[in-house]
């Protein structure tokens, strides 16, 4: 059974490793240099969100981070992608944590389609990410 657990500082190493595996499996559009750039700033981001681990039995299947009504990060271990965990997690976050906004890399078509399938709509798009890098961002909202 999938359970949500509050993450703590001791979990950060696991989260960063999972983030990197997930990004390499799903964000093929990122250069290696940019993966390294984002990996360096991830620790700062972890401290600014309500960070949770998602555990099934004894396996950590993913993590999420929310800031008020925005899902700032949701990453699954690549071994668990496509097995229904993402849908369970996003449904829980919508129903129990009031998630209404998500930013997604436009080039990550699978993730964008996933959120649209779960009732989010496109609010706006930017040509560059928040760091000025050439990775378009789609801003999604749930009404």
From TrEMBL:
Residues 2-143 form the N-acetyltransferase domain. Coiled coil: none annotated. The keyword NADP does not apply. Keywords: Acyltransferase, Transferase. The keyword Acyltransferase applies. It comes from the Bacteria. GO terms for molecular function: acyltransferase activity, transferring groups other than amino-acyl groups. CDD domains: NAT_SF (cd04301). PANTHER family: PEPTIDYL-LYSINE N-ACETYLTRANSFERASE YJAB. This is N-acetyltransferase domain-containing protein.
